[in-house]
Amino acid sequence: MGAIDILFIILSYFLGNISPSTLLARAQGLDIKKEGSGNAGTTNTLRVLGKKAALITLIVDVGKGVAAVLISNAVCGHETAMWCALAVFLGHVWPVLLKFQGGKGVATAAGAIFAINWQLGLIALVIVVASVLITRRMSFGSIVVGVLFPFICWFMQNDFFPIGLVMALIMLFKHRSNMVRLMKGEESKISFGKKKEDNK
Length: 200
Known about the structure:
With 200 residues, this protein is an all-alpha fold. It is built from ten helices and no strands.
């Protein structure tokens, strides 16, 4: 791995630091980390700032994962692109520019995984959607895909397995409070079109 590869990995991490929800909240004189659930993700943005801000947040969070992988793959190749997928994810979850207070990484991970292998990304998305529709709990979908993703990755994109495993474990770690609420039966359900729980 050469200097250019390392540069792209570093740039991917800082790309992950971009937090649209934080910037949109600041524009309205708010701190997204102190509003709603305190999470800088799409659903808390929807709750605090509304649909337009939530859509922008989702597009940017997914887009930075896609961009980090596609650009690095075009310049440096597949191996570096996989490391950039991890870097942009880590930049979102633990952004140094935001005092390491980021989101749970679901949207950014999804974008990066789709860019690595769209079939792998599609299967992960189906798992999330099916889990959410059955349970009406967004966090449950993220937890289920976090558990299953490494196994799917092993069979569909074996060279991405070590990085995919790390990403899945981190996502599960970030959802630990959701797991506790699920076990206690206290996790809120989604009311489609009205009120959503925080996930990203």
